[in-house]
Specification:
Elements lengths: L1 H16 L2 H8 L3 H13 L1 H9 L1 H4 L4 H5 L17 H5 L3 H9 L5 H6 L9 H4 L4 H6 L6 H11 L18 H5 L2 H4 L9 H6 L2 H10 L12 H5 L24 H13 L11 H8 L7 H15 L5 H34 L25 H22 L3 H35 L1
Helix pairs in contact: 3-4, 18-21, 21-22, 21-23, 22-23
This protein binds heme C (8 copies).
Length: 428
């Protein structure tokens, strides 16, 4: 009796002081959430365990805060609320605002803008497989959310459970470079492989495994790309390493124009096309010197936390130079294929807008030589400059530059063979 009175007194005191969260720590907050938790201990036990281990559970943020209270039994499961970025924004407006200003928020739009998308199986696009799995965290329009609800019962609409995964939502997980690994790996963006085998990554992984002390200097992806926890990621060169204005160097300007034409953002006369508007909309490239420098300077300031300013500047300029060298090879490959179209040796696919190769058709490019050109661009050119920027000599050289040389040799040989064959055929 005396004890319960004392408890009541404490509770009243906490209520007056507004510290109801202390009480919630033990009991799992609002009555509604304890209802969810009781049943979900059976229905989905690991989700409950993860939530119980989370800062959310300790801070009185229950299931209801994210899923609402419309579904409360086995009969009304479809009523469980969607968890959109706006759901998190109610309590974390700053992170949502930053996120919306960065590249990640455009991931859904950029994926859908790809001309080749419509050749892929639907399960690869919309679902949590293939393209959709990595691009799903981009912001979606209301209509797109409705469409997803129809196809996926409403999964994959959240933007905020990819680095700090549900239902732990742990800051520690998000701060680890492994949080980026699932998406930033493989064929055309092997940043994980590059980083984890660079001096930066090796040092960090040795720190993570306890071999090196906790306070040793070792940058993570987040150190360089999410400075001060900024959720709006963006780089100077971007994914495709093209930008405006054109460089002063005449040869490089001509080579970049060839790349831009093969991307379909310039027509063969050098005039901008409708695709340029898509590029602008999805912020695929920096379109002014100022925008590019802003990102470059932001990055230099990170390097300067550990390196001298001269060292950092020189290292990043080497990355720029590798783009220039890669564009030289790329432009030659593009020209060889364009000449085959021009001379009627190779039938230009009907859907290509100009008498010019279209790099954005990806692996749907119809012939071996066009596929080679695509691999040269999306796999090997990427590795050349991405490897340079991520201080990974093997990716920059052997998996990148050296492979580009080989691609160009093969494209040349194939083109010569095709021309030979055409000559023989025209004689018969
Ligand atoms: C009486 C049991 C019960 C209660 C109470 C309950 N749920 Fe569920 N819930 C389920 C079952 C069963 C499923 C389906 C699990 C499965 O498919 O394995 C489910 C599924 C879900 C899903 C996934 C929806 C989907 O389409 O698969 C969410 C989200 C969810 N519950 C949240 C909640 C929240 C929030 C509450 C409290 C407001 C709650 N649940 C209360 C039993 C319950
Ligand atoms: C009802 C309010 C509320 C909602 C909704 C909410 N959070 Fe939180 N979140 C909190 C509170 C309170 C904390 C404790 C730390 C703090 O005070 O910021 C927290 C902490 C976090 C942390 C840091 C965890 C750590 O390890 O320190 C992350 C990450 C996070 N939330 C992500 C999210 C995401 C993602 C969503 C949406 C899916 C979300 N939150 C929805 C209130 C909320
Ligand atoms: C769910 C998959 C996924 C995860 C996890 C992920 N990313 Fe990304 N990231 C993407 C996609 C997709 C894009 C391209 C976005 C677009 O299409 O606009 C991207 C773009 C970027 C860019 C912009 C490059 C440019 O074009 O300027 C940076 C930088 C980046 N991510 C860094 C990170 C870091 C650092 C992490 C981990 C903390 C991370 N990403 C986690 C999928 C992911
Ligand atoms: C393994 C995860 C993953 C898969 C699968 C994936 N992407 Fe991506 N995608 C990314 C990441 C990460 C980036 C950003 C890489 C970078 O900037 O270096 C990206 C970048 C892009 C970009 C460039 C966006 C920009 O604005 O710079 C487009 C367009 C794109 N992807 C479309 C697709 C399409 C279409 C598919 C399926 C055919 C696909 N992606 C499959 C992870 C993925
Ligand atoms: C901070 C917000 C947040 C809280 C709190 C939260 N969830 Fe979720 N939950 C999510 C997000 C985000 C998703 C993924 C939705 C998507 O796929 O778009 C999700 C998905 C689910 C799913 C279906 C997906 C799966 O992995 O099976 C179930 C079931 C679920 N939650 C149950 C619960 C239960 C039960 C609680 C309370 C113990 C809870 N959630 C608390 C954010 C939250
Ligand atoms: C690309 C990976 C990534 C994505 C996507 C992401 N976060 Fe984070 N989040 C992080 C990282 C990394 C941190 C730790 C930042 C730091 O070190 O201060 C973090 C921290 C947080 C925190 C804790 C902030 C603090 O200082 O306590 C909140 C809240 C949060 N994120 C909310 C969100 C919300 C809301 C979204 C969706 C718009 C989101 N995050 C999407 C990587 C991500
Ligand atoms: C030491 C700093 C540093 C670390 C660590 C780092 N990056 Fe980068 N990253 C860069 C620089 C520098 C660029 C090129 C920026 C520019 O365009 O000028 C870059 C570019 C990128 C790009 C754009 C395409 C490209 O590769 O050029 C993505 C995406 C990216 N990084 C993701 C990641 C991911 C994911 C990780 C961790 C696995 C990571 N980065 C680790 C410095 C870093
Ligand atoms: C948090 C600290 C930190 C940051 C930030 C950082 N680095 Fe490093 N970097 C290191 C350490 C430590 C080494 C390993 C030193 C050694 O090789 O003796 C290293 C090594 C390197 C190397 C290999 C040099 C060699 O001698 O083998 C290059 C290149 C490099 N960094 C470039 C950069 C660039 C460019 C940036 C910015 C985009 C950057 N680093 C940001 C800590 C950092």
């Amino acid at each position: 009796m005396a004890r319960s009175l004392a408890n009541t007194a404490i509770l009243i005191a906490m209520g007056i002081l507004g510290v109801s969260t202390v009480f919630a720590q033990q009991s799992g907050n609002q009555p509604q959430t304890s209802l969810c938790v009781e049943c979900h201990k059976e229905a989905t036990p690991s989700i409950v365990t993860d939530w119980q281990l989370s800062v959310h559970s300790q801070s009185d943020v229950g299931c209801v805060a994210c899923h609402g209270d419309k579904h409360v039994s086995k009969e009304d499961i479809a009523e469980a609320g969607l968890v959109l970025p706006e759901t998190c924004a109610a309590c974390h407006p700053e992170q949502v605002k930053q996120f919306k200003g960065g590249k990640h928020s455009l991931a859904w739009a950029a994926m859908n803008a790809m001309p080749s998308l419509h050749f892929q199986p639907m399960a690869m696009i919309e679902g949590l497989k293939g393209c959709g799995a990595c691009h799903r965290f981009g912001i979606k329009s209301e209509a797109e959310v409705k469409e997803l609800v129809k196809q996926e019962s409403g999964f994959g609409v959240s933007s905020c459970d990819t680095c700090h995964t549900r239902h732990l939502f742990s800051i520690k997980e998000a701060q680890s470079p492994q949080a980026c690994q699932t998406c930033h790996m493989g064929f055309d963006h092997a940043q994980w492989e590059m980083y984890s085998s660079s001096k930066h990554g090796v040092r960090f992984l040795l720190k993570q495994s306890g071999v090196l002390p906790e306070n040793v200097a070792a940058p993570t992806c987040q150190t360089c790309h999410m400075q001060n926890g900024d959720h709006g990621v963006m780089t100077a060169w971007g994914f495709l390493a093209v930008r405006l204005p054109m460089p002063e160097d005449k040869q490089w300007a001509a080579d970049r124009a060839a790349v831009l034409t093969a991307l379909g953002v310039l027509d063969p006369k050098g005039e901008p096309t409708a695709r340029l508007d898509v590029v602008k909309g999805a912020k695929v490239a920096r379109l002014t010197q100022e925008d590019w420098e802003e990102q470059r300077n932001k990055m230099l300031r990170v390097c300067e936390q550990c390196h001298s300013a001269n060292f950092a500047k020189a290292e990043l300029e080497k990355g720029d130079l590798m783009i220039k060298e890669a564009d030289r090879l790329m432009a030659q490959g593009i020209q060889i294929v364009a000449d085959l179209y021009k001379d009627g040796i190779l039938q230009k696919p009907k859907e290509y807008p100009y008498a010019y190769p279209d790099l954005l058709t990806f692996h749907d490019a119809p012939t071996v030589i066009e596929q080679k050109l695509f691999i040269m661009f999306l796999e090997h050119r990427m590795r050349t400059f991405q490897g340079s920027f991520h201080s990974n000599p093997d990716y920059a050289f052997w998996y990148g530059w050296s492979e580009m040389q080989r691609d160009l040799t093969e494209i040349r040989a194939l083109a010569a063979l095709m021309r030979e064959n055409a000559k023989i055929e025209s004689k018969n």
